[in-house]
TrEMBL record:
<feature type="repeat" description="TPR">
    <location>
        <begin position="292"/>
        <end position="325"/>
    </location>
</feature>
<feature type="repeat" description="TPR">
    <location>
        <begin position="190"/>
        <end position="223"/>
    </location>
</feature>
<feature type="repeat" description="TPR">
    <location>
        <begin position="258"/>
        <end position="291"/>
    </location>
</feature>
<dbReference type="InterPro" id="IPR011990">
    <property type="entry name" value="TPR-like_helical_dom_sf"/>
</dbReference>
<dbReference type="Pfam" id="PF13181">
    <property type="entry name" value="TPR_8"/>
</dbReference>
<protein>
    <submittedName>
        <fullName>Tetratricopeptide repeat protein</fullName>
    </submittedName>
</protein>
<feature type="repeat" description="TPR">
    <location>
        <begin position="122"/>
        <end position="155"/>
    </location>
</feature>
<dbReference type="InterPro" id="IPR019734">
    <property type="entry name" value="TPR_rpt"/>
</dbReference>
<keyword id="KW-0802">TPR repeat</keyword>
<dbReference type="Pfam" id="PF13432">
    <property type="entry name" value="TPR_16"/>
</dbReference>
């Protein structure tokens, strides 16, 4: 009633009287629904009618903090504190200001001081937990969230935060002990069973994880997160048909997601049913055309089935979404090689190197394509790059031998040949395969022959 009366007043510019409690209710309503301008207006009118109301002044402080008017908020708090030095809300708002200034140690100190004046400390413990999180002090954060849960077993926000602390500490066994004790006291908490399952999953204890997720979805049959984690666990246990069933349940419970479609597709791939896998991958990219993972899964299926033209279409889609993914460029290079599009393959593997993918296979493939295209100097440049990383690799040394010989730098060529033979004699056949004229060189034949005699 007071809310509609207040909004009517704003529309007509009439001034109605409200008692302080009514103003508090109106302001709280607007703050809860995020209408800060109306909350601010209500505070202003409230203080005009009730200039001595401490609670309205504290609400004014809250709005000032939200608007980042911290100095003004501090001035008001100082005046309120002079009147009510032990007002718990004064401590809370001072802590919030310190936190906004990234002074988390000071915020914690204020909150600790407030505990002696506050009847219900749960909110303070929760705030202290968050301040400790800002400091990456996960142990103290966890201890404060645990206190919240002791008071209210259904404080799931604190439960999530507590488990997060265990995760950040890498203490999955401790988390499991805590959560098992929790479900002993609160066995019908699907959130706790879900979190317990995730901890078991982290440790590779998939059967125990599955049991936990089973309990979670038994307690709440509409718990989408429970079904998703259960399905992922079933995948780890190689029960792909059951995994598919659980993913499909999530599609019935809520709007379909590209993530679920991709996971279903992967399960069908594991079951060797590539036709159905493709169907679900296509549904994934239809649901979310910007999901590069869906496009790469389509690419890989087509590549395995030697359908390189379609694979090229799909990999282009993936690269358009994430052009800095070196793995996509590597696959693009492989596909173009299969299609004999050598210039595009050069572009692909060069991009891989530029993006930081410096696997020896990339350098070798690039050098071999450049050799085929007759770009000997660029092939040599790439191999010299590779040698700086892979100093004693026969794959690089034999190719340097061949290229230096082609470029009429025979002494360099023979030096690299000797290096290569010392690393891996058997692999010298690559010279015959890639550089047949070099292999037939008299001095090359003599060095290979001499080395063969020496190792007998």
């Amino acid at each position: 009633m007071s809310l509609s009366k207040f909004e009517s007043m704003l529309k007509t510019n009439d001034v109605y009287f409200f008692d302080a409690v009514e103003f508090e209710t109106i302001i709280e309503h607007y703050l809860n629904i995020g209408k800060h301008s109306l909350a601010k207006k209500a505070v202003q009118l409230g203080l005009e009618q009730h200039p001595t109301s401490i609670q309205l002044k504290l609400m004014r402080v809250e709005i000032l903090i939200f608007e980042n008017e911290l100095q003004e908020a501090i001035k008001m708090l100082t005046k309120i504190e002079a009147l009510e030095p032990h007002n718990d809300e004064v401590f809370i708002q001072k802590a919030v200001i310190f936190s906004k200034k990234n002074k988390h140690v000071e915020a914690i100190s204020i909150l600790k001081e407030s505990l002696q004046y506050i009847e219900d400390p749960s909110d303070v413990w929760s705030m202290m937990g968050m301040e400790y999180l800002y400091l990456d002090d996960f142990e103290n954060a966890r201890l404060n969230f645990a206190k919240c849960i002791e008071v209210d077993f259904e404080d799931y926000s604190s439960l999530y935060n507590l488990v997060y602390c265990f995760d950040m500490e890498g203490s999955h066994e401790d988390a499991i002990r805590y959560l098992n004790a929790y479900v002993d006291k609160n066995p019908y908490c699907e959130v706790a069973w879900h979190q317990l399952g995730k901890q078991y999953f982290e440790l590779g204890m998939f059967k125990e994880a599955l049991t936990s997720f089973d309990y979670a979805v038994l307690i709440d049959e509409s718990f989408i997160g429970g079904y998703l984690e259960k399905a992922k666990t079933l995948e780890e246990l190689k029960d792909y048909e059951e995994a598919i069933k659980n993913y499909l349940i999530t599609l019935e419970l809520d709007d379909p997601t590209a993530f679920a479609y991709v996971r279903i597709g992967q399960c069908y791939e594991k079951l060797k049913n590539t036709h159905t896998a493709m169907h679900f991958y296509k549904k994934a990219v239809h649901e979310d055309p910007l999901l590069d993972r869906g496009w790469i899964m389509l690419t890989n299926v087509c590549y395995k089935e030697n359908n390189y033209q379609k694979a090229l279409y799909y990999i282009n889609k993936a690269i358009q979404i994430d052009e800095t993914n070196a793995l996509y460029w590597r696959r693009y290079g492989d596909i173009n090689l299969k299609l004999n599009f050598y210039e595009e393959a050069v572009k692909a593997f060069s991009t891989c190197i530029d993006l930081g993918d410096q696997e020896i296979e990339i350098y070798v493939a690039l050098a071999d394509i450049l050799l085929f295209l007759g770009d000997f100097n660029e092939a040599l440049r790439r191999l010299i790059q590779a040698k700086k990383i892979y100093k004693e690799f026969a794959e690089v040394e034999y190719r340097l031998c061949g290229l230096f010989m082609i470029l009429e730098k025979e002494e360099y060529s023979l030096t690299h040949l000797k290096n290569a033979l010392a690393i891996d004699y058997e692999y010298h056949s690559i010279v015959k395969e890639l550089y047949p004229t070099v292999y037939e060189n008299e001095r090359v034949q003599k060095i290979i022959s001499n080395y063969k005699k020496a190792i007998r």
